[in-house]
Amino acid sequence: MPASPRPRLRVALPAFATCLAVGVVACTSAPGAGSPAPERSTSSSSTTTASPSPSAPVTSQAAVKKQRVNVRVLPAISQPGRTAAGAAAARAVLLVTVTPARKNRPAVLERKKGKTFVKVGRVRVDKAGKAQFAVPVGRTKYRVTAKTFKGKPAVSSALVRARGLGAPSFLDDFNGTSLGSAWSGRVQAYDPDGMRNCSKGDPQAVALEGGALRLSVLADGARPEPCTAYRKDGSLIGDFRYRLNGHISTAGQASLRYGFAAARMKFPKAKGQHASFWLQPVPYKPDATSAAEGGAEIDVVEYFGHGGKNGGMTSFIYHPTPAGRAMAGGWVTDNERFLASKSDSWWTAYHVFSVEWTPTEYVFRIDGKETWRITEGISHQPQYPILSLLSSDYELQNLGSEASLPQHMYVDWIAFWQS
Question: pLDDT > 90: what percent of the chain?
Answer without folding.
Answer: 79
